[in-house]
Amino acid sequence: MEKKNIDWSSLGFGYVKTDLRYVSNYKDGAWDDGCLTEDATVTISECACVLQYAQTCFEGLKAYTTEDGHIVCFRPDLNAQRMANSARRLKMPAFPEDRFVQAVVETVRANAQWVPPFGSGATMYVRPYMFGSDAIIGVKPATEYQFRVFVTPVGPYFKGGVKPLTVRISDLDRAAPKGTGHVKAGLNYAMSLYNIVDAHEQGYDENVYVDSATRTHIEETGGANIIFVSGNTLVTPKSDTILPSITRRSLLQVAKDYLGMEVEERPVALSEIGEFTECGLCGTAAVISPVGTIVDHGKEIHYAGMGPTIQKLYDTLTGIQMGRLPAPEGWITVIA
Ligand code: PLP
Ligand code: COI
Question: CB 3.0–4.6 Å: which of 12, 46, 91, 285 could bond 141 by disulfide?
Answer without folding.
Answer: 91
